[in-house]
UniProtKB/TrEMBL annotation:
GO terms for biological process: L-histidine biosynthetic process. It catalyses: L-histidinol phosphate + H2O = L-histidinol + phosphate. It comes from Desulfobotulus alkaliphilus. Pathway: Amino-acid biosynthesis; L-histidine biosynthesis; L-histidine from 5-phospho-alpha-D-ribose 1-diphosphate: step 8/9. Residues 17-219 form the PHP domain. Its EC number is 3.1.3.15. It is an enzyme of class 3 (hydrolase). This is Histidinol-phosphatase. The lineage of its organism: Bacteria, Pseudomonadati, Thermodesulfobacteriota, Desulfobacteria, Desulfobacterales. Keywords: Amino-acid biosynthesis, Histidine biosynthesis, Hydrolase. One of its GO terms (cellular component) is cytoplasm. Belongs to the PHP hydrolase family. HisK subfamily.
Length: 290
């Protein structure tokens, strides 16, 4: 791995949403970061969602609250500024990385590159929360509606992994967020991910992650929400380890009470799978190629 490495106990490569800058989180960003410092984290990447560029791409809670794309963009401006302030203030106690979490709806390529050039984040987390421009991870009802609209569960999985590959190839994110999030409300995901058309896409996307030397977010929020295992699932974890892919824990916290949740369990799962605890830092963005 050519990214810088640091020996660390607790780190989060995908963490730190706050109620100050995310409608479905709680607490201030400063309070969230103070909690990371109190728990002895070596470093944390604060990866706030990018703003929706158009009304149809807002999350349902943002729609219900009447948050406009203009408001969301202005709030994101404040997020980056405040995060940079806290990055400096906390430097003696905690290494803070200022990141942003991508979306993958129509037009995201141009929009994301514009955001990256304007805000100059330390890195980006490449995530997929939409399939065919429809959200799927907000609720079980939304999940079923999107699956029905695209031709069923198997088709939704295939479209998700196709879009994820496109995102990886287009953005080359330092971190791929919650790789198998598409299984979020699927009780039969283990069997489904063994289906040939889905399994080959998983392998293909992991090969791209390995080829570009990216980090897989070992996302622990699934455990907080009552899921049986983190993102990635054990079968994908084992495959990624065999391919030499770096995995780093991310608590994906959404408030002070969630900081560090399930970190010990997550690190134990990684170590049992043969993952080193010399956690690599995400690679900085090469802005010259954008």
């Amino acid at each position: 791995m050519c990214a810088e490495e640091e020996r660390a106990g607790w780190v989060s490569v995908h963490g730190g949403h706050s109620g100050e800058f995310c409608h479905h989180a709680t607490d201030t960003l400063e309070a969230v970061l103070e909690r990371y410092a109190e728990l002895g984290f070596s470093w944390v990447g604060i990866s706030e969602h990018v703003p929706a560029p158009a009304p149809e791409f807002r999350y349902p809670d943002q729609v219900a609250a009447g948050l406009t794309p203009e408001f969301l963009y202005d709030r994101f401006v404040r997020y980056v500024a405040r995060c940079r302030e806290l990055q400096k203030a906390l430097a003696p106690r905690l290494k803070v990385l200022v990141a942003m979490e991508s979306e993958s709806y129509s037009g995201y390529e141009k929009f994301m590159k514009e955001l990256m050039l304007r805000f100059r984040p330390d890195y980006i987390v490449g995530s997929v929360h939409h399939v065919s421009d429809m959200g799927f991870d907000y609720s079980a009802e939304q999940y079923r509606e999107t699956a029905d609209a695209v031709g069923g569960m198997d088709a939704m999985y295939c479209r998700y992994f196709d879009l994820q590959l496109e995102m990886i190839e287009t953005l080359r994110p330092s971190v791929v967020g919650h790789f198998d999030l598409i299984r979020i409300f699927d009780e039969d995901y283990r069997a489904r991910m063994h289906k040939p058309e889905i399994a080959k896409r998983i392998t293909r996307n992991l090969e791209a992650v390995a080829r570009y030397d990216l980090i897989l977010d070992f996302n622990l929020r699934a455990l907080y929400k009552g899921g049986p295992e983190p993102y990635v699932s054990d079968q994908i974890l084992r495959q990624a380890v065999e391919m030499g892919i770096a995995l780093v824990p991310g608590d994906d916290s959404h408030g002070v009470s969630q900081v560090g949740n399930f970190m010990e369990k997550g690190i134990g799962l990684l170590r049992n799978a043969g993952v080193s605890s010399f956690w690599p830092l995400p690679r900085s963005i090469d802005f010259s190629v954008l």
